[in-house]
Design goal:
The complex is a heterotrimer.
Chain A lengths: L1 H9 L1 H19 L36 H37 L1 H15 L3 H12 L3 H28 L2 H8 L4 H37 L11 H8 L8 H28 L1 H4 L11 E2 L14 E12 L2 E13 L4 E5 L6 H8 L8 E10 L2 E2 L5 H7 L4 E4 L3 H4 L6 H10 L6 H14 L5 H4 L9 H13 L5 E5 L7 H18 L2 E6 L2 H7 L2 E6 L2 E7 H6 L4 H9 L48 E2 L4 E2 L8 H4 L1
Helix pairs in contact in A: 1-10, 2-3, 2-10, 3-4, 3-6, 3-8, 3-10, 4-6, 5-6, 6-8, 7-8, 8-9, 8-10, 9-10, 15-16, 15-18, 16-18, 18-19
Chain B lengths: L2 E14 L9 E14 L3 E5 L6 H8 L7 E6 L2 E2 L5 H4 L3 E4 L13 H13 L3 H14 L16 H14 L4 E5 L7 H18 L2 E6 L2 H7 L2 E6 L2 E7 H6 L4 H9 L38 H5 L10 E2 L7
Parallel strand pairs in B: 3-8, 3-9, 6-7, 7-8
Antiparallel strand pairs in B: 1-2, 1-4, 4-5, 9-10, 10-11
Helix pairs in contact in B: 3-4, 3-5, 4-5, 5-6
Chain C lengths: L1 H27 L5 H6 L5 H11 L5 H13 L5 E2 L4 E2 H36 L4 H15 L2 H15 L17 H35 L2 H9 L3 H38 L5 H10 L3 H29 L6
Antiparallel strand pairs in C: 1-2
The chains are: A alpha/beta, B alpha/beta, C mainly alpha.
Chain lengths: 626, 316, 315
């Protein structure tokens, strides 16, 4: 609760809304105690007094009633009715929505048909019909406004409930012995309430507008009683001669509704976990670069050469060092594997190359990426864009999410070609067809017109590979391209990649968490842990005689087929959080060989050009391993 | 040896394109009639690729899905989940996604307490004692009890899930891909914990996974599922070392292994059969190198002694 | 596609029937009897009985419903006692005026709302975003009837750029130019709220889509940023924007009631309010059913547009 309030307070606009609302509500509460003129006493002698007149601060209306007093009493009424309508609609709508969403099946179907039926009316028709039936009056207007909003709440809450009811914790609750009523109350409701509150806080303003609207039409509050809407309605006939009688209640509605909307947005931002974590910020066209320190020179004959690359995520006041100084290079025709567990920084390293790390929150803070002698870190956007997909291309993990769902795969391939080459559409289509055949897609001609959702996972990933090949790139960066696939499909895709890279002499950077995949595909491998490379060398050498204790233990804890039932060699503990790295070796807290020296100061990645390790006490001496 | 779990001709059919009234547009046979027995104290591994029906099977066993046909017997008695407070004590489930299996708005204590309170009717003091005991068993610190699920890593959350399942004191655990969401270093920790618990508490496991190596490392016996049917079942070492069904062999050969050259075990580009329009005969025949005329006509039955395979032309 | 449209049309039949049932049921709740309302001070027992017989009110409710429904299907919506003319004639005449007003507003809100939302999302936290966000906040907080009154005051009375009210000049020709002149203020006043809502939703839909993996793919291909926003992101965002446009059409139609009153626009909304105040039930029933039916048909158009956009919807 305190966290919620402090979040709300951090949002200055919401705070302003809150202050205004508190003032308005307080004034409305104390109105009966204030020394105001009676709002309903007419005095036709003093009609249409202008504002700031003697004894009538805001002037008087067409019957000579004190506008200030009527405004205060009207505000009181409008607020009460608006809030009441919102609460009624939210409670009833949420109840209907939760029941429909939780029980599903026929119950859901029948309820939602009914809701759809009500939503088939432009809402005011329903409200008018209800008022017509019940007769004009403020209470009836309240009922009408609440009733027409129930379907909106019901539909919204049902959607959320369906999502929650299919979560595994609901199944777990059933197995823990809970009945349906208890599950709804203790498992579903606590997860739905924030949504109800958000929906309510963003619709209270709307409800106030709506009840004011019905009163404005003369269907709500009846004279002499007045809410803000009916004040405006009565003033309309004198709009041109005495505009102040209209402006006063109109501005009041505007102020109240605006304050509520500001507050509602604040409540939503504070309660919505996705907004809280800043997930709804849009990633920019390329990663922000804030490089301090010198630009390292390129070394060796690599086509793509990363030097001391550092990428961080800045979330509020925390800094996550996802990539903490990575140097590696890949030569033409070579396949370099980067292996590591989740959070080791392997994907972020790969995405940093072409500035594809989502930014905000990602920032490249140091190092260089040399591509054919040009430093890409800090290069102008247009330079990066020109190289993306033409010289350096990517294959991503989940092909269903990474292909555009609404364009045919043929069109997506054609686009990949035409953003870099001004060729006629027909020529590009011919080339795209060739690409699909290159990646061995059966019936390539008809597959050109397929949408991604119409293909199997393996076929989609072939399209992803075809797209990466579209402009004959020099380097392909493959970010776990087979992780989402079944093992039989994975085998097909891996062998396809292997054939293609030999045919086309591609340099491949292959990111994975699977030693088996690395062993079969990669010439060299770099092992990453907590944002840094801990070991690097020819694949065979690293796998046969791992030098870093982490590599050795990671290999040991992977079960391998053919070894039978057995105890596994687990690594105790967890990888460190990259916003709170220990000094010295990041693996030291989990390492059984760790000594005090391991937990002090920087440990360098040392060895020969071929084989390097970041450890004071390696498992094998590197000279011996060669 | 007593039987902990017995499934007989268990099948599940989902209707597709449901309408408010009238017949649905089509049916998907997620699980074809399956018969299996799991002995008490045994770990039975179920292995198969996505869409093979392994999760549907698991959810039927714990009453989360109603079988279309067939029977389930748990420790000799037919499955009866009419009273959730009784049923939960007989069989429990550990979920694939450890985070989403914990209610984000409850503390760990509330989560682990629920089965103690509802299934065993323990009072506050008894519950605290029991939770302490269980947390010691799964190597979790007690200070975690008053935290919320989002504060935990996948491995820790999975231990909490296991603790909840243990709290019910069921003798049979269905483990549905319990480690596939975890990193390898943590995966080994959880697998070892499961093995350790089984030994100490004498539990029976049904261990479901797509990872052959993991299944082999934990299982006594293994059943291989393809397209909703068991195609091979037998002792773990036999099934993986000497597969009889061509599909099992394909699976074993597809897994990337250090020290084996990269080859696509299937020469052709193949796809799974369409579940809405299943092929006649053996579902695997389109991908099978041994397929003959009979495979297109008849559906093969599970045959063999101890090591069974559903194939007319088994691998020698 | 043709069969999909047909299917949607068929599935609209129960919805339309449901609408008539709901309207009839609500109207049947009315306390007191309409005869008294019609006759006013002439309500002698004999007269009341005669009127009830004439209107068929002496029959049971279910029977009355089917008679009413049957008549409507033949194009007979009954006769308005207060206007003394057939309901359908009156509704059709009024609905044309409402359609001109609401249709213009809908086009305005769809075009400007989506454009503002896209620009706002593309320049998140930039000046344009902040300006649009503030304008949107103002737009969704101001009552449309108050906005209309202020616009009359400023643009019609003070500046004399536009006529004060009505659809046509009292004297003079009824050409397109004069219609546009009369239409401008009410159409804008009506569009403001809906534009705000559409802009808000488009912005969040765009932000949602811009975080998706396929946007990163487009960038990795080297697609220029303008193409990423307008071709890749907007297309995907339209999937969630179009249903909102469908709902907003209902809101524009609803808001038209206020605007018609403020601007003396001879539309169906003003007719309904007058009919309620005079308790002209047949006119209320007929008007509500007619407009609701049009809205149902419009939503079918929205669904068809959605299915054209999104191949994942089974047609």
């Amino acid at each position: 609760m305190m966290g919620f309030l402090s979040l709300l307070a951090r949002n200055r606009l919401a705070l302003a809304g809150l202050v205004v609302m508190v003032l308005v509500v307080l004034l409305a509460l104390v109105t009966p105690l204030l020394p105001l003129a009676d709002p309903d006493v007419t005095n036709t002698g003093d009609r249409f007094l202008p504002p700031f007149s003697e004894g009538a601060l805001l002037g008087t209306d067409h019957l000579g009633r004190d506008l200030l007093s009527r405004l205060m009493w009207g505000t009181r009424l409008s607020l009460a009715v608006g809030f009441a309508a919102a609460v009624i609609a939210a409670v009833l709508g949420a109840a209907v929505g939760i029941v429909a969403g939780y029980y599903g099946g026929r119950t859901d179907n029948l309820i939602m048909r009914g809701v759809d039926m009500l939503m088939a009316f432009p809402y005011i028709l329903l409200a008018l019909a209800i008022v017509a039936a019940l007769g004009p009056g403020l209470l009836n207007a309240l009922i009408a406004v609440a009733a027409v909003n129930i379907p909106f709440f019901a539909r919204n809450i049902r959607g959320i409930t369906v999502g929650i009811a299919h979560k595994e914790f609901v199944d777990a609750a059933k197995l823990a012995g809970m009945g349906n009523g208890r599950i709804i109350l203790t498992e579903i409701l606590p997860n739905v309430i924030p949504v109800i509150v958000i929906a309510m806080s963003t619709t209270v303003g709307w409800m106030i507008l709506e009840t004011a609207g019905l009163s404005f039409l003369g269907l709500g509050s009846q004279p002499p009683q007045a809410d803000l809407g009916s004040m405006l309605g009565e003033a309309r006939s004198a709009l041109i001669t005495n505009p102040h009688t209209s402006v006063v209640p109109g501005v009041m509605i505007l102020v109240i509704v605006m304050a509520i909307n500001l507050l509602g947005d604040g409540v939503r931002d504070a309660l919505d976990p996705r907004l809280r974590s800043g997930a709804l910020t849009r990633p920019m066209a390329s990663t922000t670069v804030r490089r301090e320190g010198p630009v390292p020179e390129a070394q060796g004959d690599a086509v793509l050469d990363l030097r001391d690359l550092q990428t961080q995520f800045h979330v509020k006041d925390r800094v996550y060092r996802a990539v903490g100084g990575v140097s590696l290079g890949v030569k033409p025709g070579e396949c370099l594997g980067i292996i590591g567990e989740s959070g080791s920084g392997k994907s972020v390293t790969a995405l940093s190359v072409m500035g594809l790390v989502a930014s905000p929150p990602g920032v490249i803070t140091g190092g260089a990426v040399h591509y054919k002698g040009q430093d890409l870190v800090g290069a102008p956007y247009e330079t990066l864009r020109d190289l993306r997909g033409r010289e350096v291309s990517y294959i991503f993990q989940d092909p269903l999410a990474t292909l555009h769902p609404l364009y045919k795969v043929g069109d997506q391939l054609v686009e990949a070609i035409r953003v870099h080459h001004r060729v006629p559409d027909k020529e590009a289509r011919q080339k795209a067809l060739g690409l699909l055949k290159d990646v061995r897609i059966p019936n390539a001609e008809s597959r050109m017109d397929s949408y991604p959702h119409e293909m199997s996972g393996g076929m989609r990933q072939r399209v992803g590979i075809a797209m990466s090949l579209a402009n004959d790139p020099e380097v392909i960066i493959a970010d776990e391209p087979t992780t989402a696939l079944d093992v039989t499909v994975q085998a097909q895709i891996l062998s396809l990649l292997d054939t293609l890279r030999r045919e086309k002499r591609l340099a491949i950077v292959f990111i994975t968490h699977d030693f088996g995949v690395v062993a079969q595909l990669c010439d060299r491998v770099a092992v990453m842990y907590a944002g840094r490379i801990v070991e690097e060398g020819p694949t065979q050498a690293v796998l046969d005689a791992p030098a870093h204790p982490y590599t050795a233990r990671l290999i040991a804890c992977v079960p391998e087929l053919g070894e039978g039932k057995r105890q596994l060699h687990a690594i105790p503990g967890l990888p460190p959080a990259v916003n709170d790295l220990p000094p010295g070796c990041a693996f030291a807290p989990r390492c059984d060989k760790a000594e005090p020296a391991c937990k002090r100061g920087e440990i360098a990645l040392e060895g020969t050009a071929r084989r390097r390790v970041r450890c004071i006490h390696p498992e094998t001496e590197l000279e011996a391993a060669q | 040896m007593t039987t902990a779990l017995r499934l007989e001709n268990l099948s599940k059919t989902f209707a597709v394109g449901k309408r408010l009234f009238g017949a649905p547009k089509g049916h998907v046979h997620a699980v074809h009639p399956v018969s299996l027995e799991v002995a008490e104290g045994e770990t039975m591994g179920i292995v198969g690729e996505s869409g093979c029906g392994k999760s549907t099977l698991a959810r039927m066993l714990v009453g989360l899905l109603e079988p279309t046909d067939g029977t389930i017997e748990i420790a000799g008695k037919p499955l009866d989940n009419a009273d959730p407070a009784v049923f939960g004590k007989r069989i429990q489930y550990v979920f694939q996604d450890p985070i989403s299996s914990l209610n984000p708005r409850k503390t760990i204590r509330q989560i682990v307490e629920a089965p103690l309170k509802l299934l065993h009717g323990m009072d506050k003091a008894q519950r605290d004692d029991r939770i302490r005991e269980i947390f010691a068993q799964v190597n979790l610190r007690e200070e975690f009890l008053d935290r919320y699920p989002h504060e935990f890593s996948g491995g820790q959350a999975q231990r909490i899930g296991i603790a909840r399942a243990l709290a019910a004191e069921a003798r049979i655990l269905i483990l549905d891909e319990p480690v596939s969401a975890l990193d390898v270093s943590v995966q080994a920790q959880v697998l070892n914990l499961l093995a350790d618990l089984k030994k100490r508490l004498g539990l029976t496991y049904l261990f479901i996974s797509h990872d052959l190596a993991v299944v082999e490392a934990v299982s006594d016996r293994v059943a291989v599922l393809y397209f909703g049917s068991v195609v091979e079942v037998g002792r773990a070492e036999d099934v993986f070392a000497r597969p009889r069904h061509p599909y099992t062999r394909l699976l074993a050969e597809s897994a990337p292994v250090v020290g084996r050259a990269l080859t696509a075990p299937e020469g052709r580009e193949t796809e799974l059969p369409d579940p809405l329009n299943p092929p006649k005969g053996c579902a695997f025949r389109a991908r099978c190198p041994n397929a003959g005329a009979r495979c297109a006509e008849e559906e093969p039955m599970l045959e063999g002694d101890g090591h069974l395979a559903a194939c007319f032309h088994p691998v020698r | 596609m043709g069969s999909y449209i047909l299917k949607r049309l068929v599935s609209a039949i129960p919805v339309l029937l449901g609408i008539t049932v709901i309207v009839f049921a609500i109207m049947a709740l009315i306390p007191g009897d309409p005869a008294t309302a019609i006759l006013g001070s002439y309500a002698t027992p004999e007269n009341v009985e005669k009127i009830n017989r004439d209107l068929g009110l002496d029959k049971p409710a279910v029977q009355r419903y089917f008679i009413w429904l049957g008549n409507m299907l033949q194009g007979d919506f009954g006769r308005s006692f207060s206007l003394n003319r057939p309901v359908l004639d009156e509704v059709l005449e009024r609905f044309g005026a409402t359609l001109a007003l609401a249709g213009t507003s809908f086009v305005l809100c769809a075009v400007f709302g989506v454009a503002a939302g896209v620009v706002s999302a593309a320049r998140q936290y930039g000046f344009a975003d902040k300006a649009i966000t503030f304008a949107v906040l103002l737009g969704i907080s101001i009552p449309s009837f108050f906005l209309g009154m202020m616009m009359i005051l400023i643009f019609a009375v003070q500046l004399r750029w536009f006529p004060v009210s009505g659809m046509w000049p009292v004297y003079g020709s009824r050409d397109l130019m004069t219609l546009v002149q009369h239409l401008t203020l009410p159409a804008i006043a009506l569009a403001v709220v809906a534009t705000g809502v559409v802009a808000r939703l488009s912005r969040s839909a765009m932000l949602e889509v811009l975080r998706q993996d396929f946007i990163r793919t487009a960038r990795a291909k080297g697609v220029p940023e303008r193409g990423v926003i307008w071709r890749h992101a907007l297309r995907a965002a339209m999937v969630s924007i179009i249903p909102v446009l469908g709902i907003q059409a209902g809101f524009v139609l609803s808001g038209a009631v206020y605007i018609e009153i403020v601007f003396q626009w001879p539309g169906v909304g003003r007719m309904l309010v007058d009919a309620i105040l005079t308790r002209d039930i047949l006119l209320v029933q007929g008007g509500v059913v007619f407009v609701a039916a049009c809205y149902v048909l419009f939503n079918i158009v929205v669904d068809v547009a959605q299915s054209l956009l999104d191949p994942r919807i089974k047609t």
